[in-house]
Design a protein that fits this description.
alpha/beta; 500 residues; Aspartate Aminotransferase, domain 2; 16 helices; transferase
Amino acid sequence: MFVRASTRAAARLQQPRHVLARRTFSSLELIPDEPSRPNVVTGAIPGPKGVALSKEIDTFQDSRTHVIVPDYEQSKGNYLVDADGNVLLDVFAQISSIAIGYNVPSLLELGRTDEFIKAALNRPALGSFPPAQWAEWIKTGLLTVAPKGLDQLVTTLCGSSANETAFKAAFMAYRAKERGAGADFSKEDMESCMLNQSPGSPQLSVLSFKSGFHGRLFGSLSATRSKAIHKVDIPAFDWPCAPFPELKYPLEEHVAENEAEEKRCLEEFERILIDNKRTRPVAAVIIEPILSEGGDKHASPAFFRSLRLKAREHGAFFIVDEVQTGVGATGTFWAHEKWGLKEGEEPDFVTFSKKMQAAGIYHKKETRPNAPYRNYNTWMGDPMRALQARKMIQLIKEHDLVSHTAATGALLASKLNTLFASPAASGKILNFRGEGSGTFLSWDLETPAKRDEFVAKMRKAGVQIGGCGERTVRLRPMLTFGESHVGVLCETMEKVLGGM
């Protein structure tokens, strides 16, 4: 059963509200014609037009994963319009993938420029034929938000391919260290790799964590540990899985238990690193700052710092998967900024996609491959998306949307604490978490069926919200989500919870 936060914790939550009061940003600055409220016009969602369109799509493509069929031309800002004309407050944002909003005029203007149109229509094979403007586009865009200590960038097509690219770079760098400075591949390396045998195809591994999600390609899927439906029937690499802490909430009421749980997981993590040295050495460790698809699982900054330092101690590269947590969603541009890593302790790789719209990996120069074509493919990303990311980064900075998201998250957490302690929610909400992580908030319901019922009723009431894990509801709003949207969300949640 949900327990109200302590007075001390509640006081901490109130402080950022003054920050919010000092900020004047409104989503109407960027999206002046954004709706003010949801408007549901059909008895069910999806409505008849949406159902018919899904059936038409199903004639050539599986439609069983469809939630709704949107009308993107009519959607505005934080509001998603479906094919039936239902206007929904979208706090899921295409699985955390929309940074600023739908049909933002500044982005539409970019799309009408000759620069953008020509970048879209003359799509190059970036690794071999980059545009003359490529260095300028990247240096004035994606590199301006490079994580501390990482000045190298490889652009890719999606989050899965970003993680796969990081895996490959880590394996190459690991083997380069084993060979020694300047050593070339042996004849045996070159011949054995063509047979998928060692030493050219070494028995190395990537360590990931229980409940982690890193993608659906072969390597990234082998590191994914969230839902069995993603993995079943697919051959996988024999890579190790470490436990991730199962924290108890509210945090301030379970300090000793949570410290013991993190200590247990760190000890098991190190044991796996040591044991695998004999059979399948761990070349890289990959971790999400918040294990998102697996149920929004959190751990302390001290836990993540220890993971990073132990990985280095045992010779493993450290990959931070910020595909879902990056680009301001947690109230800092990169979620791992909250860990308090010192200079020289930065991750070796940070992967990104989703809210950036572009995708790729930031890394250190020493992890560049020792020969061309080793981390390479035809497209290596998309200039159109690099331009889109550059414009969004400019807007995020111009309107200070990361700080805005931090303040909005504090306000929202405070209101949700009050709501979850009210009679409408009594006994229905468990494990409210994410306070201090911007709008990256979540909670559990008693059963998976209750979670699904809640999500469906919220949609019918005009709010598009999402789930993760077995019974978790997660918030993933856009960076323009603000005080007015908080009011709509909390009002709708109170009505839905009161009717469950």
